[in-house]
Design brief:
about 210 residues; mainly alpha; two-stranded antiparallel sheet; 2 strands; about 65% helix; globular
Length: about 210
């Protein structure tokens, strides 16, 4: 599998461990123009940008598309504040494993800044917990193979498979959240409504019959 070796895997592992999203209070309080937002958001992902190859973290067309799809709030007079940055950071993180339409189940579009702050704060906390869990999974695979002089092809394959199954798991969560609960009592409800809608005269006529 190419030039994958212990050194490269350790670098990847180190990059992920150092990746840390900014907290709400670390986001700028002033409104920014699109080019400033792109530069700032891209900077937040600098630790892992090298792992994504030529893929851009954020571009102007991407932002316009997110707004069009109602995945984030529209700008205010072509400028973006904390709520917009928060959404862009969350979307840029999740798009590595989810499509935009599925994200609504995880980061719904809100119009209240306090609720957006709460959602983003929870997102950052869970991102750090997720990386901690990832470390617990990946480290034993790398260390175990190193100690046993195992094949790094096997290490890569195990990590790729783990990622594949996690993506399937993620898709399952998105599908489950989008499903509406079945209403088994619908027919009974309709019948009860019809009964309640009958006028006293109709009930009397039926009784006489």
């Amino acid at each position: 599998m190419g030039n994958i070796n212990e050194t490269n895997l350790k670098k990847i592992q180190s990059a992920l461990e150092s990746f840390k999203l900014p907290g709400w209070d670390e986001l700028p309080s002033i409104y920014l123009y699109m080019d400033q937002v792109i530069e700032l958001t891209t900077g937040y992902f600098s630790e892992i940008s090298s792992l994504l190859g030529d893929e851009k973290i954020l571009t102007a067309p991407m932002i316009n598309n997110y707004i069009k799809l109602k995945a984030m709030p529209s700008p205010v007079k072509k400028r973006y504040g904390k709520p917009h940055l928060a959404y862009l950071i969350m979307i840029s993180t999740l798009k590595q494993s989810m499509n935009i339409s599925s994200m609504e189940s995880v980061i719904p579009l809100l119009d209240d800044e306090d609720k957006i702050r709460e959602m983003y704060t929870s997102f950052v906390h869970n991102q750090r917990q997720a990386l901690s869990s990832l470390k617990e999974v990946v480290t034993p695979i790398i260390d175990g193979a190193t100690e046993k002089n195992g094949s790094f092809d096997d290490i890569v394959l195990q990590i790729v498979l783990a990622s594949t199954f996690m993506k399937v798991f993620t898709s399952g969560i998105a599908v489950s959240n989008s499903e509406k609960p079945e209403k088994t009592d619908d027919k009974k409800s309709v019948k009860a409504k019809k009964e309640s809608d009958k006028s006293p005269n109709q009930e009397s006529d039926e009784n006489e019959d």
